[in-house]
Specification:
single chain; about 725 residues; three-stranded antiparallel sheet
Length: about 725
């Protein structure tokens, strides 16, 4: 019996964009190569083929091909006739995953002694689920239970074959059989849809040193490493694989003169890459051989004016009498990074150190990879871009800066939005901070990318962070004053979540060295306004959700302090206390009884949420922005009808909508302490002392008010 899809061009029917000379697989073939499809840059190479040859039973092989074809071409007339068929076309990556699982399921059926899917019963499905729910040692990822998300992919084809049974030519499940009837695939796989994001943020003790190190690498070391890397590539391009048979006598004088120069100037000889040292040891060299680490070929080529040559052990022996005495006195060092430029240490900008010690060629390449890791981590941390969007970055992605009002510049990155879009993605752009923009330009330079070539190689974020952490924690990173990075999981989703929470919880301080949360918020908001509904818009929506939750939490804490007798201070304290008294009164008027405690808690939360909507966080106070006409900052700015307070003009000691709480006490105490230090300095100008004294007195009054309202002891110095 002939399949309804026989002879069809799979890629053409699916509507995938194709390369001019790529293969066009036909349905009748058992191997569908997809290398001719224009895939997004981040797609793994192994998914670019749909292989049905592993299915033992030829009839089941045809069934598998018909099912996969129906997934990628859901608008075919035969598929449209199926009431439970999926209507959204599957991407090649999803088709690959399902093909892999189909091969395993159908071979399991065959191994159970069944000649057709018609013989499958529920107990077979249960056994298969139990077998696949645990990894075996054959899996390189180790043993242990399979995650629910993976089980969902494993079991989806098993269940879906029932919905497509009328389509299959050579056999299907019985008409009355559906695996796990009455249950969804998600139920069977143990998958739960979470109402809130389940991805945790990166712990602050890991996040802060990570982003600080990435910033230092990109901004301070980046151009220097790129320059040295390009020089290393030029040197290696000029290296010959030729092997001189012996030490030519005509070069004797030149060699001796060069060695005398090394001795006189105390210049080390060039050392070999570690891999070549290992090869020498494997060939029988002694570990204490004085020439073990010497790059004799480099020395010979430079002296003779020829291209650098590889030296056989026999020729090295001819050099030994001349080289050994010199090597013993001057030693060996890497060819690159000698006389390195001085740069400020990360922990002390006044202390200058060489940006690197001498490096071999392989060490330069390793440092290039660390820089690329830092670039990708930094862009992900400061922009919230997903892995697929970073993979689509090219050398052309950094767009020319745009000057806006006030003389400042805006930096944009062009890429593609992949998640949730049709196959191939759609063009998108991100408004980012300048360090993120420079990081993409640096990555393209380090990768020697031009035009549409990708700026980042496809690498998992957890692997890149591990390499960055190892380098920072090594003696090389510590020499530059970088703070050690503790061990801990870091991936792209966690970085995106961390950025969202950092923005939602501002003004919690700095995102990292030199990166203020306000700046990140501005560019993220601008990106949202530029492309509503775009990727940055989705990130900003998550930020606003988390901000609402955080403000509600802070309002609850203030309400609990009020009940515990720790009252707020500041000009707006009386109004806030009245609001809390009003909430108490409403709760008493709506007494649900002892059996309905949960309802009371929900009602309290709803009442507090109404109050938290007016909360705006400042560094040293809470601003309950209920009435714009009472806001001191708007009066000073001459904009009484604004909808948000102006944090930069906040004077919480005088504004009737500002309150001070115990959490703000350290800020005010710090201001008092710093002011007193200046006032006690005899060299401090008298005019400045007169200006500073009222400020210190006012800050001390705020400290005293907070301590008194909270019912604690004196907060003086």
């Amino acid at each position: 019996m002939k399949s309804p899809f026989a002879g069809m061009n799979v890629c053409a029917e699916a509507g995938w964009d194709m390369l001019p000379n790529g293969p066009r697989p036909l349905f009748d073939e058992d191997l569908w190569p997809l290398t001719g499809v224009k895939f997004p840059k981040g797609v793994r190479s192994n998914v670019k083929r749909l292989d049905f040859t592993g299915i033992i039973n030829p009839a089941m092989r045809l069934t598998a091909k018909e099912y996969i074809f129906a997934l990628v071409v859901p608008d075919h007339e035969r598929v449209l006739a199926l009431p439970e068929a999926r209507r959204e076309p599957y991407r090649p990556e999803s088709a690959f995953n399902f093909t892999v699982q189909l091969v395993r399921w159908m071979n399991f059926v065959t191994e159970q002694g069944m000649a057709s899917l018609n013989e499958v019963m529920q107990e077979h499905c249960d056994v298969y689920r139990d077998i696949r729910s645990v990894r075996t040692r054959k899996n390189r990822r180790g043993t242990g239970p399979i995650t629910p998300a993976t089980m969902l992919t494993i079991l989806r084809p098993v269940v879906d074959l029932a919905a497509y049974r009328e389509l299959f030519t050579m056999g299907s499940y019985r008409p009355d059989f559906t695996p796990w009837p009455g249950h969804t695939v998600s139920d069977v796989a143990g998958w739960q849809t979470y109402a809130i994001p389940s991805t945790p943020p990166v712990p602050d003790e890991v996040f802060q040193p990570t982003v600080a190190a990435a910033l230092y690498l990109v901004e301070t070391l980046g151009p220097l490493v790129a320059e040295e890397f390009e020089r290393m590539l030029a040197v290696r391009a000029n290296t010959s694989d030729s092997k001189p048979r012996d030490f030519a006598a005509k070069h004797q004088a030149a060699v001796e003169a060069a060695l005398q120069w090394h001795l006189h100037e105390h210049v080390p000889l060039v050392s070999l890459d570690a891999r070549h040292v290992t090869r020498r040891l494997n060939r029988g060299w002694r570990p204490d051989d004085p020439l073990l680490h010497i790059n004799v070929g480099h020395f010979y080529g430079k002296v003779t004016g020829t291209r650098y040559a590889r030296m056989t052990d026999q020729v090295v022996e001819q050099f030994r009498p001349l080289l050994e005495p010199v090597a013993a006195k001057v030693g060996a060092a890497g060819e690159f990074g000698r006389d390195a430029q001085l740069v400020p240490r990360s922990d002390d900008s006044q202390q200058m150190v060489p940006w690197t010690l001498p490096l071999t060629g392989d060490e330069v390449r390793s440092l290039q990879f660390v820089l690329l890791a830092a670039c990708r981590v930094l862009v992900a941390a400061l922009s919230g871009m997903r892995a697929g969007e970073l993979d689509e970055m090219t050398a052309d992605s950094p767009q020319p800066p745009v000057t806006v009002s006030g003389g400042t510049q805006r930096f944009k990155l062009g890429s593609k939005l992949i998640k949730g879009q049709e196959f191939g993605g759609v063009a998108e752009e991100w408004v980012v901070l300048e360090p993120a923009w420079r990081a993409v330009k640096l990555a393209a330079r380090l990768n020697q990318a031009q035009g549409g070539q990708r700026a980042f190689a496809r690498s998992p974020m957890d692997f890149l962070h591990k390499k960055l952490r190892e380098w920072v924690n090594s003696p090389v990173g510590q020499r530059l004053g970088l703070a050690p990075i503790p061990a801990g999981p870091v991936n792209g989703r966690m970085l995106r979540r961390t950025l969202a929470l950092s923005l939602a919880h501002r003004p919690g301080g700095l995102l990292a060295a030199k990166i203020h949360l306000k700046h990140v918020s501005v560019v993220t908001t601008e990106g949202y306004a530029n492309r509503p509904g775009g990727s940055q818009g989705n990130l900003l929506a998550e930020v606003e959700r988390e901000q609402d939750k955080h403000h509600l939490t802070l309002t609850k804490e203030a309400f609990e302090d009020y009940h515990a007798g720790r009252m707020p201070a500041g000009p707006g304290a009386r109004e806030l206390i009245k609001a809390f008294e009003h909430i108490d009164a409403q709760l008493k008027d709506h007494e649900p009884g002892t059996a309905v405690v949960l309802e009371a808690e929900r009602r309290l939360e709803n009442l507090l949420r109404q109050q938290s909507k007016h909360l705006h966080l400042q560094t040293a106070n809470y601003c309950w922005f209920r009435d714009p006409h009472k806001a001191l900052c708007l009066k000073l700015a001459g904009t009484p009808d604004a909808t948000k307070p102006l944090g930069g003009m906040c004077d919480s000691a005088r504004c009737p909508q500002a309150t001070h709480h115990p959490c703000h006490l350290p800020v005010w105490q710090s201001q008092v302490g710093t002011g007193k230090v200046f006032l006690a300095n005899p060299r401090f100008p008298k005019g400045e002392k007169k200006r500073l004294e009222p400020e210190v007195e006012r800050a001390q009054r705020v400290v005293d008010e907070i301590m008194t309202a909270a019912g604690t002891s004196d907060g003086g110095e």
